[in-house]
Write a structure and sequence with these properties.
The strands form 2 sheets. This protein has an 8-stranded mixed beta sheet with strand order 3-4-2-1-5-6-7-8, sandwiched between helices. Strands 11-10-9-12-13-14 form a 6-stranded parallel beta sheet, with helices on both faces. The chain has 2 domains: 2-202 and 389-415, Rossmann fold; 216-387, 3-Layer(aba) Sandwich (Rossmann fold), CATH 3.40.50. Helix 8 crosses helix 13 and helix 11 (319-325) packs across helix 14. Helix 9 (269-275) links the parallel strand 10 and strand 11. The protein has helices spanning 16-30, 81-101, 120-130, 142-148, 158-171, 180-188, 216-221, 244-251, 269-275, 293-297, 319-325, 339-344, 356-367, 370-387, 390-401, 408-415; strands at residues 2-6, 34-39, 59-63, 66-70, 109-114, 133-138, 174-177, 196-198, 228-235, 258-265, 282-285, 302-306, 330-333, 348-351. It has 16 helices and 14 strands.
C-alpha cells in the first residue's frame, strides 16, 4: 500500500508522538509498504529546533526506508495556550502545499495524527482528492485538555470550537485512538462505532525487557546496589502533575535507602530543578539517547506515573508502555475510574492525584516489600507481551487499512 502519514511530530524526536509516528513509519516500510511522511522538523520535548534544521525551511529526506518532507513551523521558547495554537497553525499552513503535492502520488491511505487537529482539514482534503482512505488518529483530545487545564480561554467561541472538532471527527472514514475510554469519548463526540478503531501505543518487547543484571546507571549516579530507585522518565509537561514527585521525595528524606531519579526535558524542567534543590537522594538526568532506554528503565525498582486530574482520562501516557515492558511495578497518581488506573491496578499502585503524602506512602510500601515488587513487575511484563506488543498492534492496523469495507466510492475513483 501507499501510506501517507501527516504528523507534526516525527523522528528523530525521542519521546511522545514523534517517537510513535517514527516507529510506525519505519515498521510499515519494513513490511514492504511505500511510506511517505509530511512532518515538522524535530523540536520536542526541548521546544527548540533540532541541530541543522533551521535552514532550509523545506527539505526532503530519506529516513529508514521512508520518504520524509519537512515543513517549517514556529517554535515558542515559552509555550502557553495561545502560543501553542499559533505554533501548530504555522505548521498546518506551511505543510498544506506539501500535502497537495502528494496528490500525484495517489496514496491508498492518508493518516493524520492529532495533535495537531488543525492539520486534519488538509489531510481530509488530500484523501478525498486522491481517492484515499481518510484516517484520523487521536493521541490525545487536545481541545478538551486545553479547556480543562485553562490553557485556552475562548469564551463564547468554545461552543464553535467543539462543533468544528465534532464535524472533523465525523468526516473521516476511520477515527482511531489509544484506549477504550478514549474510544467511548469519540463516540460521545458523534463518531459512529463502526468508524472507531482501537490503535494503542505499543512497545517493542524484544528491545525493552527486564534487565538480567544491575543497570549501569546505578554506578553512574552513585546509587548503592541495595537502594530502591523510584524513577520518572519522560517529557516534563504541564498536564502531568509532575510537581508531586519532588514533594514526595522531600517527605521521604528520612529514608536513606530510597533514591529518586527524574529524567527528561520539557516546560516543567525549571520548576522541577528548583523543587529538588537540597534533596540529597534525588538525581536529575537530561533526556537520554534512545539507545539507552532499556538500561534507563531497568534502573527503576518502581516507576512513577504522575498525571494531572484535568487530563488523566483524555490521554494515556505513551511512557506507560516502556514501564510495563521493563517488568517493574508502577505507582500512578490518578483517579480510580480512569483507564490509567485500570491498567496500573494489576501491576502497581494507584493513588489520588496531586497528593504527595499518598505517593510517598505507596513508594515506601513497595520499597519495603521486594516480593510484591517482583510479583507486580511480572504482571506488568505479561500485560506488555499480551496486549501492546508492537508487531501485533501495527499488524492489526494494516489489516484494518486493507479491510474490504473501506469506502467504495473512494476506491472506484482511484480505479478510474
Amino acid at each position: 500500500m501507499k501510506i501517507l502519514i501527516y504528523s507534526a511530530n516525527f523522528a528523530p524526536e525521542p519521546t511522545g508522538i514523534g517517537k510513535y509516528s517514527g516507529e510506525m513509519a519505519e515498521w510499515l516500510a519494513t513490511q514492504g509498504h511505500d511510506v511517505r511522511v509530511v512532518a515538522a522538523p524535530p523540536y520536542y520535548p526541548a521546544w527548540r529546533l533540532g541541530d541543522g534544521y533551521a535552514w532550509p525551511p523545506y527539505r526532503k529526506e530519506t529516513w529508514r526506508g521512508c520518504t520524509v518532507w519537512r515543513a517549517p513551523l514556529w517554535v515558542p521558547s515559552q509555550p502557553n495556550g495561545l502560543s501553542r495554537i499559533v505554533h501548530l497553525l504555522t505548521f498546518a499552513l506551511s505543510s498544506a502545499p506539501v500535502m497537495l503535492r502528494q496528490l500525484a502520488w495517489r496514496p491508498d491511505v492518508v493518516l493524520v495524527v492529532a495533535p495537531a487537529m488543525v492539520c486534519a482539514p488538509m489531510a481530509w482534503v488530500t484523501a478525498r482528492l486522491s481517492g484515499a482512505q481518510a484516517w484520523l488518529h487521536v493521541q490525545d483530545f487536545e481541545v478538551d485538555v486545553a479547556f480543562r487545564m485553562g490553557l485556552v480561554n475562548v469564551g463564547l467561541a468554545r461552543h464553535l470550537v467543539w462543533r468544528m472538532e465534532r464535524w472533523l471527527l465525523r468526516s473521516f472514514d476511520v477515527v482511531s485512538t489509544i484506549s477504550g475510554r478514549m474510544i467511548d469519548h469519540l463516540q460521545k463526540k458523534g463518531v459512529s462505532p463502526e468508524r472507531c478503531h482501537l490503535f494503542p501505543n505499543w512497545v517493542d518487547t524484544d528491545k525493552i525487557r527486564p534487565l538480567d543484571g544491575i543497570s549501569s546507571y546505578r554506578a553512574r549516579l552513585g546509587i548503592p546496589a541495595q537502594a530502591v530507585v523510584a524513577l520518572f522518565s519522560g517529557t516534563m509537561g504541564s498536564k502531568q502533575g509532575l510537581e508531586v514527585v519532588p514533594a514526595a521525595a522531600r517527605l521521604l528524606q528520612h529514608r536513606d535507602d530510597i533514591h529518586f531519579v527524574i529524567c527528561g526535558d520539557g516546560v516543567m524542567k525549571p520548576q522541577i530543578e528548583a523543587d529538588t534543590q537540597g534533596l540529597a537522594r534525588v538525581h536529575l538526568l537530561p533526556l537520554q539517547d534512545v539507545a539507552m532506554l532499556p538500561e534507563l528503565l531497568g534502573l527503576a525498582d518502581i516507576h512513577l506515573l504522575p498525571q494531572s486530574p484535568d487530563a488523566e482520562d483524555l490521554v494515556l501516557p505513551s511512557k506507560l508502555t516502556g514501564m510495563l515492558s521493563s517488568g517493574r511495578p508502577i505507582v500512578a497518581t490518578c483517579n480510580p475510574d480512569t483507564e490509567i488506573a485500570m491498567v496500573v491496578a494489576g501491576c502497581g499502585k494507584v493513588v489520588p492525584p496531586l497528593q504527595p503524602e499518598a505517593l510517598a506512602q505507596a513508594i515506601e510500601s513497595l520499597a519495603d516489600d521486594p516480593n510484591a515488587r517482583a510479583q507486580l513487575g511480572q504482571a506488568a511484563r505479561q500485560y506488555a507481551e499480551e496486549e501492546i506488543g508492537r508487531d501485533a498492534v501495527l499488524s492489526a492496523v494494516v489489516r484494518h487499512m486493507q479491510a474490504p469495507d473501506a469506502p467504495a466510492d473512494d476506491r472506484s475513483r482511484k480505479a478510474a
